[in-house]
Design brief:
This protein has 439 residues and is α/β, with parallel strands linked by helices. It is built from 10 helices and 19 strands.
Length: 439
């Protein structure tokens, strides 16, 4: 028999600090914040599930029916959190939880980690609806026992904030939505050829001249706010600075480091999209620029993420015909220079205590030798995923044929792209294609 349980701020309570034990103050703070969010959500969400039922159906409990209230929610964490709990690599945190809601109003949540408790509290709040007549909060599902754990260690959403600028408040709302759906990664593709919306205090002209306009950039304080907001919701926010391609916006401030900038009308011979332009491959000025960039940015983002994405997609060799330090599009000349370039960047990422990420082309098209720690993001095909795994690398699967969401205006040309990776299957796809054993 299913009981109708009621909860309200007056009659229900979640665990107080004295009822929970956690390994570190950080873990403790994350769980306490999640408890407060759960209380607020139960009080304020006001969701009546009309769409779940036929029109004019009587799906709600009678207003005068006897009520059983939730009196207590017991939360128990069975193990201490690891040191990596706030910025784990994929799979390092056990997110499994159990949730039991009895017919008498007792609720028990058990998890191995504080992140598991976050996931359980999300599920708990999603069991409740608001009554359309009296405003009471109730669940029709008690008694219920739920044992839940993710299939994938990385459940990510990629957000392009360079081609289309989104205010910080919009990104924070996106993190709320991701947490509600138990995603655990947000990939911010934060710079591109169209704009540079990221403030770098050591290189202030980058956003001052490279953003679409003044004010359409993220300050260090805003970037930290985004990453910390995600951390408190179990969503690790990692940053991508795409290099060496997709960097034409740098030319507004530092034209000397960019090759093949904004070639017209034949931009398609030198880039996948306008404006063309990429970092030069054999320029001391480029390495000086990158040193300053990484020394400023990486220490600021490292406390919040285990990963940093250095890009590497859609690099057109023809652009280097206009690179005065190279003047060639031959792979025999470019490949060693690209290897040096990527090794340089990944050295800084590792020195900051993070794991490098790249797009698949660096491995599969440029044939670079990547460190065994490097995480490869595959986006061109399922075959790319299989090839990457066969070469011994961990991979994020995000085939653009299925996983990219283009946003359209009145005309048919796409304005921007957000993509998901390694989440629920899209039509015709699977997030875990058949893979060979690693070599």
């Amino acid at each position: 028999m299913a009981w109708t349980l009621y909860g309200s701020t007056a009659t229900s309570r979640l665990a107080t600090p004295s009822q929970t034990k956690y390994a570190t103050p950080s873990s403790y703070a994350i769980v306490q914040a999640a408890i407060q969010r759960a209380q607020n959500q139960l009080s304020n969400d006001k969701f009546v599930p009309w769409k779940f039922h036929p029109r004019n159906s009587d799906f709600e409990p009678a207003s005068n029916a006897s009520k059983i209230y939730i009196q207590n929610v017991t939360i128990q964490q069975n193990q201490s959190d690891s040191a990596a709990i706030l910025k784990p690599l994929a799979g390092e945190v056990n997110e499994r939880y159990t949730l039991f809601v009895s017919g008498s109003g007792a609720v028990d949540i058990t998890a191995v980690s504080s992140i598991g408790i976050l996931r359980a509290l999300e599920t708990f709040t999603q069991l409740f609806y608001q009554h359309s007549s009296n405003g009471a909060v109730y669940t029709p599902y008690a008694p219920v026992s739920i044992v839940d754990a993710p299939k994938f260690g990385h459940r990510g959403f990629s957000m392009d904030v360079a081609r289309t600028y989104y205010p910080t408040t919009f990104i924070l709302h996106t993190l709320d939505v991701l947490a509600s759906n138990k995603f655990n990664r947000l990939h911010l593709h934060v710079t591109d050829s169209q704009s540079w919306p990221l403030d770098i205090p050591a290189l202030p002209d980058l956003s001052r001249k490279g953003a679409y306009r003044t004010g359409l950039s993220y300050s260090p304080k805003e970037l930290a706010q985004i990453q910390e907001y995600g951390m408190y919701r179990g969503v690790e926010v990692y940053i991508e600075i795409d290099t060496p391609g997709h960097t034409a916006s740098i030319a507004h401030a530092f034209p000397e480091v960019i090759a093949a900038y904004n070639i017209q009308p034949d931009w398609g011979d030198y880039a996948n999209e306008p404006p063309s332009g990429g970092l030069k491959l054999n320029s001391s000025a480029v390495y000086t620029f990158l040193h300053t960039l990484w020394e400023d940015l990486l220490p600021r983002v490292a406390p919040y993420s285990a990963y940093f994405h250095t890009g590497g997609d859609e690099v057109d060799a023809n652009a280097y015909l206009f690179d005065d330090t190279v003047m060639s599009n031959k792979s025999s000349i470019l490949q060693p220079l690209m290897q040096k370039f990527v090794d340089f960047n990944h050295g800084y990422v590792r020195a900051a205590g993070m794991t490098p990420m790249v797009w698949e082309e660096m491995l599969l098209e440029w044939n670079l030798t990547l460190g065994s720690d490097v995480l490869v993001q595959a986006w061109l095909s399922d075959e790319s995923v299989a090839k990457t795994v066969a070469m011994g690398h961990k991979v994020i699967a995000g085939n653009y044929n299925y996983w990219v969401i283009p946003l359209y205006s009145q005309n048919p040309s796409p304005l921007t792209v957000n993509s998901t990776s390694t989440v629920a299957a899209a039509p015709g796809s699977t997030p875990s294609p058949a893979l060979p054993p690693p070599s």
